[in-house]
Please model this.
Amino acid sequence: MTKFSLDDLAALVDSRAGTPPETSYTAKLLSEGPAKAAKKLGEEAVEAVIAAVQGDPKSLVSEAADVLYHLVVTLKAAGVPLDDVMAELGRRTAQSGLAEKAARRHT
Model:
């Protein structure tokens, strides 16, 4: 099985960004601006939460994929490279999650 990564997803979103909105859902979302992409991200996140709470792993997998897709589209719409998010995650893993979270409260 071939591994599909977030980098692959970001490259796919990038490739579809320049296509006509009437031929690509990604291009349509991007043409409507960051607020529309963010709204869809929020909707998908709620659906993922519901699937998790209901203990429905199959639905959770599907909704999690939707969340990741809409997150990458939202980042693209906002002009934030996925690499910036991954770098932030890398920075955070240099210390324990509890210590990192405590440090954020004091800033």
